[in-house]
Amino acid sequence: YAEALKEFEKIKDTDFQAMYQLGVMYYDGLGTEKDPERGVEYMNKILNSDSPEARHLKFAAAYNLGRAYYEGCGVKHSTEEAERLWLTAADDGNPKASVKAQSTLGMLYSMPALKDLEKAFFWHSEACKNGNLESQGVLGIMYLYGQGTCQNTKAALKHLRKAAELGNIYAQGHLVEYYYTRKFYLKAASLAKRVTENDDIDMLAKITDCHPAYIAEGVAMAAFYLARCFQLGQG
């Protein structure tokens, strides 16, 4: 990272891609000490640039700026500004825009401050359609419990199983719960055993691009229901 930082610094004034990479590195402290203010500065330059060479980076820059405002890192915390920037980055579900922003909006509208489950369902649907694994799992749960949409068990299982097959641990945990509560104990125990073998949460988060907290929750759910299966002498 340190060598990359030096090279990007040399060309940042003529290369927007280098400026973007520097923004990420300074914000997250990759190859250098954290300097979120500088990271925000570079992202703002990209977002506000009229240069055609910056156009393909604007959605990603808007997503990262939204993250900064939401975290209150490098700028004053503002959920409203984070929402505005993520909406810009999501671009009405455009598959060439920031799919991460689309999924993040789904999460944002599920939280108490801006809770609107119909909006959450819409954005998770857009993100899922554009290939986001985390939103695929969340859609399954929303269909299962009728959150922001009509309850639909068939659609729920379709999304949960697809997400689970692709490595979404949160979806796997909810499938374990689904099987257990319907007394499919052997099926629940078999899946739970596989889920609880996952002990490197951070590595899984990097591989799947899913939030570590949701991965940990999926593992915890599986462990709980596996223990219940053992109590019943099942599995």
Automatic annotation (TrEMBL):
Keywords: Cytoplasm, Repeat, TPR repeat. One of its GO terms (cellular component) is cytoplasm. InterPro entries: LRP2-binding (IPR052323), Sel1-like (IPR006597), TPR-like_helical_dom_sf (IPR011990). The keyword Repeat applies. It is found in: Cytoplasm. The keyword Secreted does not apply. PANTHER family: LRP2-BINDING PROTEIN. May act as an adapter that regulates LRP2 function. This is LRP2-binding protein.
